[in-house]
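does this look right to u?? zinc ion version
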Amino acid sequence: MNRRGFLKTNGTLFSTLPFLNIIPGSIMDLLEDNIHEFKIGRFQCTVFRDLIFKYKAKDYFINVDSMEVQSELSRFDITTDIIPSPYISLLLKDNTRTVLIDSGIGFSDEPIVFKGKEFVLRGQLSNLLERKGISKNGITDVILTHFHPDHIGGVFSNKGQLNYPNATFHMHHTEWDFWHSSKSVAQPPLFKFFVEKNISPLQDEKVNFIKGDYQEIIDGIVSVEAPGHTAGQIALLISSNNENLLYISDAFLHPLHMEHLDWRTSFDMEHKMAKKTRTKLLDLASNDTTRVNAFHFDFPGMGRVDTIKKGWRWVYDK
Ligand SMILES: [Zn+2]
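got this back:
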């Protein structure tokens, strides 16, 4: 998400930041709807819904006529110009490791002060892990696909305590370098604030900086370079016993981005690179054995990619 798109979406930087203050209605009553479980070979997989955010269609598809967008969105039962979008985390568990992929927006019981303004975070990941009996101390690895707030906000508590004290944190070195260099100067100050709070202090913790493409970071979990949305975003290819899962993070924000590779979002840093990444991931995904998990698609974001005459198409799991 860049500053322009961010401001355009929300009007002002602070007063209407829904992802910071939203309390998903009766989330405790709907606990089961916020947790989705399945298996990939030896991995027990759980998708948690941290919260739901709402985006404006014109920010999801910035270079497309709004009538065309609306007509395409109606195929997904969206008849307004608002697109509901979950934030998720994916937990992978086998006999030796408990791996968390992305950390949610975070939760704060007290207001956080940023530039003299107060806000609170209402991510539900901590609650949901607790309800499932998953101890944060038992998490051995945390993989951060990129450094936008909805993916890193839960690394530290609002009191500055590391939420996963025994974990090794995996991230691509390009993402780290970008956010810790002058290249990130044009990024929204609030995003930089999240990085300063949740990423920079990791320099004193166990960090694995991924270098290069297709790196096996944990047995059966391979990082795939997926730049464009951010400088060093990664996707993840999870494989076990001939079953595969591709975690595409934010390379696609909506299934329509798979059908229309030229439809740009205001949240990608570099459109040409984002398109190249989309093609690469669609190629990887479009086979009979690969399931796909998409961070911002309808929860739990599980489906597959079909090859069609003119390209690719997303199919949600039934
Ligand atoms: Zn995201």
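Residues 1-16, 21-29 have pLDDT under 50 and may be disordered. idk if thats expected tbh
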